[in-house]
Amino acid sequence: MKSANNIGFGIIGLGMIAEFHAKAIENIEGCKFVAGYDHTPAHSESFCALHGGTPYTDLEKFLADPDLDIVTIATPSGFHLEGAVRAANAGKHIIVEKPLEISTERCDKIIEAAVKNNVRMCTVFPSRFHDSARLIKEAVRQGRLGKIVLADAQIKWYRSQEYYDSGGWRGTWKFDGGGVLMNQGIHAIDLLQWVMGDVSEVTAYTATLAHERIEVEDTAVAILKFSDGALGMIEGTTAAYPGFLKKLEICGSKGSVMMEEESITKWEFSEPMPEDQKIRERFQNNTQTGGGAGDPKAISFEGHRKLFSAFVDAVIRNKPFDLEGNEGRKSVEIIENIYKSAKNGVSVKFRS
Q1: Interatomic CA distance for residues 332 and 277, integer angstroms
Q2: What is the β-pairing status of strands 93-97 and 70-73?
Q3: Contact, 148 vs 326, CB < 8 A?
Q4: Exposed/middle/buried for 279, CB within 10 Å: 0-12, 13-18, 19+?
Q5: Radius of gyration of the chain, Cα coordinates, nearest whole angstrom
Q6: Nearest residue to 249 (alpha-carbon basis) of 196, 314, 303, 185
Q7: How far, in Å, CA of 16 to CA of 175, rounded?
Q8: What are 1-46's pLDDT values in tens digits?
Q9: What are phi and psi of 7, to 5 degrees?
Q10: Is the CA virtual torsion 28, 34, 35, 36 positive or negative?
């Protein structure tokens, strides 16, 4: 790995989310977008003309670029495996857009490739890098909420029929891996398990209620049992017009915290601390974007920037990174078991 002021990034898959990757890279000191790969020449040429890298339509030549240190994977979800494994085999560190892959089996192959080739890899979950999310996790860790009894994630978003019709991979099991949960809701599901810890059992229902020509769910409800005994719920839909910011709510015997995208809407404890009022004031209206609720482009690249920057620092300093390896797999496992429960009409217990 090069020094901290000379890190070359490349992107595989130059669609919508790749724009956010490129902007994040461009705003990290010492990092540079050097190469982009897409199988469509027009996409590769236009993207690199805008962002300054070398365009490639041959993946082997892309991975052989001598200036390339870190590869980000921005292809449709069901294509993550091939790009990630080939990048790992080429000795490149890897940042994979969410979900890590569309099944735990495919996630494991990416993780194994990174370990085999002694490269670092992580999954993109920018919401973990909101200051508000980190405050909530720390409050739970400190025990300020007492015995946690309920923990919920709500994803009441909106996607038009045109959204699903715009790409042949959208709304398919093979390439999207699922619907609202695997594609949109996974951000909130990752936050929920990151704050709460392991899920031990799930019972779920899924349905396709408001969209046509898709194989997957646009609406889902899951009841969770966490390993510490707390109960919870995941609600997800892409049919709630006009779309609402995702929510995380954690309630306990000594306190409750609630977050709407980046804003903290509730921060209440039976044993208050001096900084609580400042936290409420600072994070009350902290969300500056649409959060992707009604428009997938209505997000900021700042979360990606923070994540990419932290990953680079972890690689250079050879220190742990909290979205590395198996961490990106956890939300996929939860969603996979939700789908099993809904399909078979039974509760599904997680392997210990």
Answers
A1: 36
A2: parallel
A3: no
A4: middle
A5: 20
A6: 196
A7: 16
A8: 555 568 999 999 999 999 999 999 999 999 999 999 999 999 999 9
A9: -105, 125
A10: positive
Q: Which amino acid is at 254?
A: K
Contacts of 248 (CB under 8 A, 6+ apart): 133, 136, 152, 153, 154, 188, 191, 192, 195, 258, 259
- H helices of 234-328, where? 276-283, 302-317
8 Å CB contact between 312 and 7: yes
* Residue that is written with structure tokens 């409050």 in the block: 139
Chain Cα centroid distance, residue 189: 9
With a CB cutoff of 8 Å and minimum separation 6, the contacts of 298 are 289, 290, 291, 292
Does residue 118 contact residue 351 with C-beta atoms inside 8 Å? no
Alpha carbon 341 to its chain centroid, in Å, reads 23
pLDDT in tens, 101-128: 999 999 999 999 999 999 999 999 999 9
